[in-house]
Design goal:
The complex is a heterodimer of chains A (114) and B (117). With 114 residues, chain A is an all-beta fold. In chain A, the strands form 2 sheets. In chain A, strands 2, 4, 5, 6, 9, 10 and 11 form a 7-stranded mixed sheet that branches. A 4-stranded antiparallel sheet of chain A has the order 1-3-8-7, with no helix packed on it. Chain A is built from no helices and 11 strands. Chain A is globular. In chain B, 0% of the residues lie in helices and 52% in strands. The radius of gyration of chain B is 14 Å and the shape is globular. Chain B is an all-beta fold. In chain B, the strands form 3 sheets. In chain B, strands 2, 5, 6, 10, 11 and 12 form a 6-stranded mixed sheet that branches. Chain B has a 4-stranded antiparallel sheet with strand order 3-9-8-7, with no helix packed on it. Chain B has a two-stranded antiparallel ribbon with strand order 1-4. The chains are: A mainly beta (114), B mainly beta (117). At the A-B interface, strand 4, strand 5, strand 9 and strand 10 of A face strand 5 and strand 11 of B.
Chain lengths: 114, 117
Amino acid sequence: DAGVIQSPRHEVTEMGQEVTLRCKPISGHDYLFWYRQTMMRGLELLIYFNNNVPIDDSGMPEDRFSAKMPNASFSTLKIQPSEPRDSAVYFCASSLARGQFGYTFGSGTRLTVV
Amino acid sequence: AQKVTQAQTEISVVEKEDVTLDCVYETRDTTYYLFWYKQPPSGELVFLIRRNSFDEQNEISGRYSWNFQKSTSSFNFTITASQVVDSAVYFCALSPAGGTSYGKLTFGQGTILTVHP
């Protein structure tokens, strides 16, 4: 398996623009997580899905953030409009059985909003 | 609420030294999982180990070993004979094994390990 695949690896955008981050989980994994990593806040969970259904989005910072999982092999995290404080590394992770066997993270998307 | 504390922000050692990274956690859950992840300079998060709360056996994998002590809520990680390639940020993490928060990972702030040649 190719692991969790995220795209793009790097994204630089101007404040106010829409940004879409993409994730392809490991085939067969039924849980998908979006995390954000910043120097100030460390790694924080934004939202997670089970069988394509959002279960907990309490970590989503504000209405500018939205996430979807239209099928078992694809998820998006969208920021509209983007702001400089959204600059961070965004990780996607997937797991089987709620992490009972561990979580596999993607390589992350480094987002810079200027 | 869950909390993971990695009190050591940065550790610097010389190659071949042993080094222990501390992790202390707080949880009200009776069953949970503990994890260690490595984040090398390239940025990805690499899974190292998962431990169930009901299994307090220590584990050794090559130069890595983990000491889980439920009585002190600690899950420490030791690297024996450290190498330059061990230089990375190491994260300890916790997730409940049941309840509404089942599967949600809470990370510590990480420990930056630098191994000098």
